Amino acid sequence: MITLRRATPGDAVEFVELLLISSPYFPFLFGSGVNVALKDLFKRPSNLFSHQHVQIAEVAGSVAGMSLGYDWIVKSRENLRTGVLFSRNFGISMVFRIKDLLKFNATVGKFDIGEYYISNIATYPEFRGRGVGGSLIGNLERGAKILGAQKIVLDVEKENTGAINFYLHLRFYVVKKIIIPIDGDRILEFLRMSKDL
User: Fold this and answer.
1) C-alpha span between 114 and 75 (Å, rounded)
2) How far, in Å, CA of 192 to CA of 21, rounded?
3) Cβ 17 vs Cβ 60: under 8 Å
4) Three-class secondary structure of residue 148 per DSSP
5) E-assigned strands of 60-185?
6) Are 16 and 145 in contact (CB under 8 A)?
7) Of 108, 85, 92, which is closest to residue 26 (Cα–Cα)?
8) Rounded CA gap, 190 and 193, in Å?
9) Which of 9, 127, 146, 166 has CB 3.0 to 4.6 Å from 43, enough for a Cys bridge?
10) Are 3 and 57 in contact (CB under 8 A)?
11) What pLDDT does residue 126 have?
12) Where are the beta strands (DSSP E) in the chain?
């Protein structure tokens, strides 16, 4: 049986593990201190990585997965604070990443009024195929409707075909392709997917 609950600050370790499963490019993008920074942000209120925006899925009392999502109002209210908190965690090294981070923030994670954004969703490998991801998304959809969202959107890495097929199965559709050149010759490619509520 799958149980969903709101995250608490005590879920920080599992949150970071699962977030890095869903976003394996984070260490490259943010640097080696990303784990510590994410734990810090998760424990703090009022930022886009806060436990306030995370739901945890459990199977038989064990953490099986998580989702991180928020609406357009939260994004506009907490985006700047999130950047400030990241800067505090990384200090001067953030200066060397700012150009890439601004490109990333202006494309992936950008969404419109009336949309609810799924920033991250992940399930531990041993719990896949048991309905955990579908339960997490279903709960996000219900919450998004209550908040007045007309669409739910997400960005998925282009090569993550398993996740893309999962979202297509849940009636998401591809809106556009996002290409982000990072740090010279590296390119990150995403598909923006959407579902009408």
Assistant:
1) 12
2) 19
3) no
4) coil
5) 62-71, 115-123, 151-157, 173-182
6) no
7) 108
8) 9
9) 9
10) yes
11) 97
12) 2-6, 54-59, 62-71, 115-123, 151-157, 173-182, 186-196
Residue ranges per structural domain of the chain: 2-196
**Which CATH superfamily groups domain 2-196?**
Gcn5-related N-acetyltransferase (GNAT) (3.40.630.30)
Measured CA to CA, the distance from residue 161 to residue 45 in angstroms comes to 34
* pTM score, whole prediction: 0.93
85 phi and psi, to 5 degrees?
Answer: -65, -40
Going residue by residue through the chain (197 aa), what tens digit of pLDDT does each one get? 999 999 999 999 999 999 999 999 888 877 778 899 999 999 999 999 999 999 999 999 999 999 999 999 999 999 999 988 888 877 666 656 666 666 777 778 889 999 999 999 999 999 999 999 999 999 999 999 999 999 999 999 999 999 999 999 999 999 999 998 876 678 889 999 999 99
How far apart CA 157 and CA 100 sit, in angstroms, is 17
CA 66, CA 118: separation in Å to the nearest integer? 11
At 115 the pLDDT is 97
User: 157 with 164: CB under 8 angstroms?
Assistant: no
CA distances to 110, 122, 150, 195 from 145, in Å: 19, 22, 7, 12
The confidence score (pLDDT) of residue 101 equals 66
